[in-house]
Design a protein that fits this description.
It comes from Conger conger. By secondary structure, the protein is of the alpha/beta class. The protein contains eight helices and 29 strands. Helix 4 packs antiparallel against helix 5.
Amino acid sequence: MWRVVVWLLILGLPALGCPSGCRCYSLTVECGSVGLQEVPPHAPPTTQTFFLQDNAIGQIRQWDLSALGQLRYLYLQNNSISALEPGAFRGQAQLLELALNRNRIHLLSADTFQGLEHLRVLYLSGNRITRLQDHTFRCLQRLQELHLQENSVEVLSEEALVGLSSLALLDLSRNSLRTLQQGSLRPLASLQLLRVTVNPWLCDCALLWFRRWMSREGQRLLNPGGRRLLCASPPRLAQRPLLEVPGSSLVCIPPLLRLEPRRQTLRPGAELRVSCQASGFPQPQVSWRRGAPGAPGGRGGEGAGEAEARGGRRFGFGPDTGSGMLLLSNVTPAHAGPYECEARNAGGVSRLTFHLSVNTSSSSSPSSPWRARRGRDSYPGGGAVSREPLRALTQGSMDFHALGPGPQAGIAAGIALLALTSLLLLALICSRHLRHRLRKEGEGEGAAAALFANDAPLALPQEYRRGRLYALPPASRHQEALSRAQGRAEGDGREAEPADALCPNQSLLFDTRVAYEIHC
């Protein structure tokens, strides 16, 4: 009985080792076009050929292929792969061919292909790669074919292809390349075929070396179509083969910088905007760096993208823009110092320095620089000014004694004038009230004529003498008129009201024994 069980287990092992929905035979696993969204697990560890094309796989993780150490051929084309985790192929030391074409890959790093020491062919065509970073393929020392056509590669740095000493075929056709740096092809010691057609080449001085290379070594490395590499710009050279353009026509204009302003002082918490514009041909690439030439680099402020650069932090801007804006939000004293604007193109490099100062003094402001001086100073029109800072409005009212003699005299005169105006207003109200009461009693015609001659209140006679204003006590004729009015009221049998009852506060305002003298 136990022999039957053993035979059943042996016969069932292949079925148990094949991923669901896939077909497994010999050393090959076929999982193409089955709607997979990730690499299926449980593939036999002895698999040497793995077909995963035409699925919806979105990423390759570190553990997806870790158990397949015997892989020779891996086909992942026509998926939705956008991310390759660093070290995802670390266990595939025997892999010879890797197909990643027709996916959504946009970024490759130096750790992407770690572990593929024996890889011979790499397909990366039809992706979204825009830039090849330095040392991206350093681990592929035995790679013979690199297919990068139909991407969006704009820049190929001098060290992007370092490590590809065995590469025989490089396909960069149908990309967005505008130029090639002179040292970019130097690491390709075994190169036999180069394809660079259908790119928007900018025919200027930066391609002068490439034109010379094409006329010599390029004759055997370029295919017949590649020898007719066409210029896309400038307009005067458009659609002309690079080999037919005279070397004297491949010119460059070094960058010319304009930086406004060159120096600025801000208060803490302010925002800085400085424009750095560059002109030249080809259009220069503008970048910012913290620190002047030869000075140690520092860290930039908020709101600016940063990228490592030589000797300091660089604020990066997109290439070929011709202008760059240095933006620092919420400025602090740590932001103070020099900033360098750099413009670079094939014709050369130009730099200008901007200086930022942060004013932390509480008694100074950009609009009133005279307040920042110490001790005593003077207004432009004369007069001494105290250098002691005024209190902030949020901390209470200002101290009167802290003001100068001039402001003190002005404030005192204003207060005195306000008090006099109040007294005159009260007197006028009381006088009009008295006239109204007398008229109401029916005896106001004579009394009103006597008391209010010329419609002027008799409670406050005024007299101008030699530039002085006197406020005198009530005249005797006014008292006599009031007595007459009281007598008439008694003759009619009515009780006469005292004059003070009509305006109770009048005696308090104008004492008959006191004369008020005000100097004009």
